Amino acid sequence: MKKKYQNGFFIFGLLVLIVMVTQLDFKEVWAGVQHAGYWFITALILWGFLYIINTYSWYLIIDSIGNEQGVCRNVRLVSGGSIRSPFRLLH
User: Fold this and answer.
1) Distance (Å, rounded) from C-alpha 20 to C-alpha 79?
2) 79 contacts: CB under 8 Å, gap ≥ 6
3) Residue 43 vs residues 6, 27, 28, 64, 74: alpha-carbon distances, Å
4) Could you give the CA distance from residue 13 to residue 7 in angstroms, rounded to a whole number?
5) What DSSP element (H or E) covers 51?
6) 17-51 confidence digits (pLDDT tens)
């Protein structure tokens, strides 16, 4: 992708993020975090673990492209649910 398109998408994403944050009521968010209690920490840890596994699965896909393992393996990795279900890579 050309650098100007990358910069354009980055700026667009940054503007959308700024709009979302300005619309946010932080008192309501804090009340929700307090209501969730320790489950909020548990959810963050689980999300972090799944994020790491998902990132690793993308590295596997990207690293396998160009190797002599063939197109079928890459298609199996992508269609095996590695985008949202990284544990499918373990079978």
Assistant:
1) 32
2) none
3) 32, 20, 18, 31, 31
4) 10
5) helix 38-64
6) 999 999 999 999 999 999 999 999 999 999 999 88
